[in-house]
Amino acid sequence: MTRSGLIHRLSIGLLSQRACVLHAAVFACAVGVAAYGAQAAPGDAEEPTMFVRLIDPGQEPRRALRLQVKPGDEQRIIFEQRLQLRMRIDPLPEPMQDASSSEISLLIEVLEPRGEDISYRATYTGVRIHDNDDMEEDVADEMREVLDDFVGMRMRVDVTDRCEVRAVEREGGALQDPIMRALHEGIVDSMRQMSLPFPVEEVGVGAEWVVDSTIEMMGARFASIFTVQVTELTETGYEATISGQVHAADQPIEFDMMPGDASARIVISIGESHGTLRHDLRQVLPLVRMRSVSDTEMIVSHEMMHTVIKQSMEMDISLRAQE
Predict the structure, then answer these.
(1) The domain that contains 169 carries what CATH number?
(2) Which residues contact 197 (CB under 8 A, 6 or more apart)?
(3) N or C: which terminus of the chain has fewer CB atoms within 10 Å of its end residue's CB?
């Protein structure tokens, strides 16, 4: 493959893979942002990938944050995402730009519990991708195809009343399509590894806790730390500000449409997120508004050629009630 052919393939592949991974992560985050807990890495049950640390218990009065849902409760939500992506691939003279906007509808149903944990079903009920002149046509088509295939997918999640995940499983038969299967596995991994669970201790206004975790994406491990600070507290819920940082450096990564004999490494990736959260504890999921920015540099090697890729991303996300 020529260098120009490799660069073209990489440009489409990276944008497509990034878009699909982001939307798979969107589903995972929407389904489980309030339902992830400290989990052990696969095959290594003695090394949890997440820790929750209370920094400040806040003012009196204080109370323990616990889910107050019951079987039969339902919640309908919409996850809205706006993405701006800018990517420079050496030696292309001009950067590539991509923009997308989408809405994902979810139905949350609280089920009869299995044991002492809370069980709920999350169903992906619809998707709407807004047309954008800046989006690559190949990327838009792949996003629509992948997301359309996810409509109707159902996940059963078991959590504690502190939102620590116990089990995540897809309802239905085995997925035959390798892309769908890979995305599903990514969703399950994300739901097990990414979380904002409640602390064990009672908290009041001004309380602050930190969630340290390790996230796997595109075959790479990202260190993540999120801080939650309570701004309002009632008998049935709380409001908070949330901020986070994600970092990865010097490790191999994987993505589709890359030649089989090519390899890729992430040089460095740094991201920050800031937003607000409002959680009625009589519902499984909180309502969230967040803005994330990130910068990533990677190197792709193929037949003695080394291509440097630099990418910047801005994303606004919201999880809101469906009216």
Answers:
(1) 2.30.230
(2) 36, 37, 38, 52, 162, 163, 164, 211
(3) C
pLDDT tens digits for 202-225? 999 999 999 888 877 777 888 889
Distance (Å, rounded) from C-alpha 132 to C-alpha 82?
11
- 165 neighbors 32 (Cβ within 8 angstroms): yes
Task: Note the pLDDT of residue 93.
Answer: 65
- Establish how many alpha carbons lie within 13 A of residue 153's alpha carbon, considering only the half-sphere containing its beta carbon: 25
Domain that holds residue 168: 3-321
pTM, two decimals, is 0.80
Residue carrying the six token digits 């085995």 = 174
Span 10-33, pLDDT tens digits: 444 444 444 444 444 444 444 443
Closest by CA position to 183, among listed 39, 33, 59, 17:
17
| Total domains, the chain | 1
Among candidate residues 16, 9, 13, 32, the one with its CA nearest the CA of residue 284: 32
User: Rounded to the nearest 10 degrees, what angle do helices 137-150 and 3-32 cross at?
Assistant: 30
**Residues whose CB falls within 8 Å of the CB of residue 182, separated by 6 or more in sequence, listed in order:** none
Distance CA 304, CA 317 (A): 40
**E strand intervals along the chain:** 40-41, 44-48, 50-56, 74-89, 96-111, 118-130, 154-159, 165-171, 208-217, 220-233, 237-253, 263-280, 287-302, 305-321
With CA atoms as reference, report the closest residue to 198 among 71, 34, 21.
34
| Whether residue 258 has pLDDT greater than 80 | no
Residue 210 CA to residue 265 CA, distance in Å, equals: 29
pLDDT value of residue 286: 87
